[in-house]
Every structure is written in structure tokens, then in C-alpha cells.
Amino acid sequence: MTDLSQTIAPKSDQLNADDLIAGPRTIKVTRVSPMREPDQPIAIFFEGDGGKPYKPGKSMRRVLVRVWGKDGAAYAGRRMTLYRDDSVMFGGVAVGGIRISHMSDIIESVTLPLTVTRASRKLFTVRPLPAERGPTDEDNRTKLLRIAREKAALGGTDLEAWLDKLNAAQRSVVGEIEAELRDIAANANDLPPPDDDRFPGDDALALHREGA
Predict the structure, then answer these.
(1) What is the pLDDT of residue 204?
(2) How far is CA 134 from the centre of its chain?
(3) Is the CB of residue 27 less than 8 Å from the CB of residue 101?
(4) DSSP classification of residue 18
(5) What ranges in the chain are assigned the alpha helix state H?
(6) In terms of C-beta density within 10 A (0-12 exposed, 13-18 middle, 19 or more buried), how is residue 127 classed?
(7) Burial classification of residue 123, based on how many CB atoms lie within 10 Å of its CB (0-12 exposed, 13-18 middle, 19 or more buried)
(8) Among candidate residues 47, 90, 42, the one with its CA nearest the CA of residue 63
(9) 5, 22 in Cβ contact below 8 A?
């Protein structure tokens, strides 16, 4: 696939609505910094921002304060989904702007009235953003049991040393296959140590000569 979205990004020192023409973007905040610009008094930096922070307008700043509170320092680590709203007006012309559709760290939707024009207001809703997906408990369990079998295959000494490093929860999981691990370790201990001075087939050759 040839991605054309990178070729239409506007040159700017901030995230623009045109950056979202290809679709919404979920960002994770790294820090919020004050700016000396009256119309854009804060900059929200995020992972992968490329030096182009999100500078929310007054309406979205009201949303941020309503949902996450007034302490910008507390925003670090939180996430929000940004999208382009083509209906945003400037100077009586629809130029498009950035809106927030979802935010993390809330359990239900938040609706508040926002000013559309001096004479009208419109309800705006922000929805909860699902938590980031990480490894599931089942994934972690499978990985732990795989490593346990690998350690057992090295022999009893290696297995015991590894088991001693586990916490109580991990030890409980591994305990489900402890008998199997002991068998694997016992078989590994019974294997003769490798002799680097001999080549595969030397024993067979020696037996052949003795029989001769």
C-alpha cells in the first residue's frame, strides 16, 4: 500500500485540522505547556507529535477542563481522540477545526453546551475512550509456562534457580505443571554431557572396530 496521507500534511508548528483529513487520531499526552499566544495559551504535547503539539481552541479547552479538570500537569499519560470537524467556522467561513470525540479516564459520556456563534450554543458530547489493550492474563500465563518448560529442559539446577526468582502469583501458575517440569528436568539430567573432542558417529565407529 502506498500511503498518501503523509504527503498532504501541512507545514506548521502545531497539529492542524488538515492533519486529520485521513481520519481521527488517538494521542497520548506527554505534557501540557503554557504558551504566550493569547488565542492559543496552551500546547498539548503527545507521543509521536513530531514537534507539532495540539493547541486546542477555547471550546476544546472548556471540554478539557470539564472532563479532566484544570490541572494540566495531571493530563500526562492520558489519551484522547481528535477528529476534523468540517463545520467549524472562522470569519463566517467553514474552515474546519479539531474536535475531541473520546477521552480516557472517564467512565461515562460527558455532555456540555458549547458556543457556536455569539447567539447560539450547541450540546457537545465526549465519550469514554477504551483502555489501551495490553497482554492479557492468558497471554502472560502461556508465556510463563513456556519459559518454565525451557528452564526445565536445562536441568534441575537451572529450573530451581529460576523458580526461586518467581513471585507468589507466578509460582502458583507454574505449580500447575510442576510434576511435568520435574520429569523434563530429570530427563535432562540423565543426558550425558557433550564431549567436544568427539564427533557424531565416533562411538559407532569404535564399536564397529571392536566387533571387527
Answers:
(1) 44
(2) 7
(3) no
(4) G
(5) 58-68, 137-152, 156-163, 168-174, 178-190, 202-211
(6) middle
(7) exposed
(8) 42
(9) yes
Position 69, amino acid: G
Q: What are phi and psi of 33, to 5 degrees?
A: -120, 140
Q: Which three cell numbers stand for residue 115?
A: 458556543
The separation between the first and the last C-alpha atoms of the chain, rounded to the nearest angstrom, is 68
Q: Check if the beta carbon of residue 188 is closer than 8 Å to that of residue 153.
A: yes
CA–CA gap between residue 18 and residue 12 (Å, rounded)? 11
Contacts of 199 (CB under 8 A, 6+ apart): none
Q: What is the CA radius of gyration of the chain?
A: 31
Amino acid letter, 131 = A
Picking from 33, 34, 10, the residue whose alpha carbon sits closest to that of residue 22 is 10
**Spans of the chain, pLDDT less than 70:** 1-11, 89-95, 117-118, 134-137, 191-212
Task: Determine the Cα–Cα distance for residues 203 and 206; give it in Å rounded to an integer.
Answer: 5
**pLDDT at residue number 12:** 77
The grid coordinates listed for 145 are 509456562
